[in-house]
Amino acid sequence: MSVQQPNSFRTGPDERGHFGIYGGRFVAETLMPLILDLEKAYAQAKADPAFQKEMDGHLATYVGRPSPLYFAERLTEHCRSVKTVSGLMGAKIYFKREELNHTGAHKVNNVLGQIMLAKRMGKTRIIAETGAGMHGVATATLCAKFGLPCIVYMGEVDVERQKPNVLRMKMLGAEVRGVTSGSKTLKDAMNEALRDWVTNVADTFYCIGTVAGPHPYPAMVRDFQSIIGRETREQMLAAEGRLPDSLIACIGGGSNAMGLFHPFLDERGIEIYGVEAAGHGIASGKHAASIAGGRPGVLHGNRTYLLMDDDGQIEEAHSISAGLDYPGIGPEHAWLNDMGRVKFLSATDDEAVAAFQLVSRLEGIIPALEPAHALAKVFDIAPTKPKDHLMVVNVSGRGDKDLASVEAFLESKTK
Ligand SMILES: *Cc1c(COP(=O)(O)O)cnc(C)c1O
Fold first, then answer.
1. To test the ligand 1 pocket, which listed residue (255, 344, 394, 395) has its Cβ within 8 A of the most ligand atoms?
2. Does 13 reside within a domain?
3. Could you tell me which of 222, 213, 212, 302 has the C-alpha nearest to residue 258?
4. Which of 32, 63, 340, 391 is the most buried (most CB within 10 A)?
5. In which domain, by residue range, is 143 found?
6. Ligand 1 center to residue 270 CA distance, Å?
7. Angle formed by the axes of helices 107-120 and 134-146, to 10°?
8. 302 lines ligand 1 (CB under 6 A)
9. pTM value?
10. CA of residue 66 relative to chain centroid, distance
11. For 2-46, what is each residue's pLDDT tens digit?
12. How far apart are alpha carbons 190 and 193 in whole angstroms?
């Protein structure tokens, strides 16, 4: 496929929310006025230095930013010592340490922005959907901080699977509503949240957890997460006197990846990799890789790559990492894939767990299972690069939440 490359990869979306043929806003007519309201309010907030200044303050004192850029020395040495390269090759690997944020992952960057916007719009009730519970916890956290009631929709299956996060949300004062429709997982929770929004249009703000949903959500969430890439630029310039040569991040809906990638998209020499969850393997059909194993369709208000059967029904995503099992991907990623700007790879459950264990022992950092998928590909890519190649991996969250899943996975392998 030959594609016409745009002058800039950073100007999208267009005024109707399209990234090429992806994105847009496929919503019920009753929601349109709200979406337009939100779009206007966000544009005003974005241009208001007072809003930005307040956000910077909370990012510094509440979230704990900037998150460090860390030279992963033992991992670098490990990748340089593999037989095929025997010390002659191997990139210099840095971690962007989003796992050190308050609540233990990158999601808080986005939720802070959206809850501040909700307050500015005079909204008095916050709703959110959650799969693994991480976005629910981040939303419940900021609703507590700003004194707003919070309702989190969560599939019943996930309520059972993610008990600790349900307890966390309740402790933070949120109401968790179990969703019993469909497959009782994330996509059903998202449908239920959209339904709530339609019925409570006047006072309710819908806080979406990734770069998906109807326009302006994908662009807005990206903007809030872009603090990751902006800091990385400055920190790499300070550490090495130049920009990195490659970036790599895991993809659920794609918000941590978009946040790292976006400020670098127009430096075309920089290689950019997104890593989807291949679960039991793409060929098995049990995966969460929308680009590798899906095709374009419409879900949750936007057109993008989705996991669908031949009748166009959404298929259940599978991954050992609950945070990656969304059956779609943000529309901007879909476009960047078709443009050839971002290369999409995938890592299986086995590869992710191996990386989870090895990185814990090499660096004393237990990564979440989500970024363990990106780290798994670092073991493949880093040894093929020269020693002066600077590589940044987004460590999007910490792995304490995943210890039980990893133990169960390893035990099932020895049986
Ligand atoms: C939720 C989550 C992800 C996946 O979401 P994206 O929108 O793709 O970033 C990745 N890592 C962690 C730690 C998460 O909690």
1. 255
2. no
3. 222
4. 391
5. 18-62+107-221
6. 23
7. 40
8. no
9. 0.97
10. 18
11. 578 899 999 999 999 999 999 999 999 999 999 999 999 999 999
12. 5
